[in-house]
Amino acid sequence: MPTNQVNIVVDVKRVLDPQAADALVSELGGLQGVSGARMSARTPRLVLVDFDPKQTSTQRVLGTVQRRGIDARLIGM
């Protein structure tokens, strides 16, 4: 059965050091319904997340980022 994927962009207010970025991407990638999470190669303050909206939500993705103490906002879908 095919799933619908949503792509969102999360803007973090500061560039994360490589360790923090890897930990964030790993945690986001582990969320149920998330098929991919990565830091933008062109703009290191942006986190690109692909997920199935039937399994998780934009607010869960954003909340996961913010619980790490990272000031962030959603800027695109």
Keywords, please?
77 residues, Alpha-Beta Plaits, 4-stranded antiparallel β-sheet, alpha+beta
Unreliable residue runs: none
CATH topology: Alpha-Beta Plaits
Number of domains: 1
What gap, in angstroms, lies between the N and C termini? 23 Å
Helical run tally = 2
Oligomer: single chain
How much helix is in the residues?
25-40%
- CA-based gyration radius: 12 Å
| Strand order in the largest sheet | 2-3-1-4
SSE succession? EHEEHE
Task: Report strand %.
Answer: 25-35%
Going by CATH, the architecture would be: 2-Layer Sandwich
Mean pLDDT: 93
The shape is globular
Quick one: how many beta strands? 4
How would you sum up the major sheet? 4 strands, antiparallel
Set out the fold topology.
Layout: E1 6-12, H1 18-29, E2 34-39, E3 46-51, H2 58-67, E4 72-76
Antiparallel strand pairs: 1-3, 1-4, 2-3
Quick description:
The chain is built from 2 helices and 4 strands, in the order βαββαβ. It has 77 residues and is of the alpha+beta class. It has a single domain (6-76), classed as 2-Layer Sandwich (Alpha-Beta Plaits), CATH 3.30.70.
What does it look like?
The protein has one domain: Alpha-Beta Plaits (2-Layer Sandwich). The protein has 77 residues and is of the alpha+beta class. β2 and β3 form a beta hairpin. The two termini are 23 Å apart. A four-stranded antiparallel β-sheet has the order 2-3-1-4, covered by helices on one side. The protein is globular.
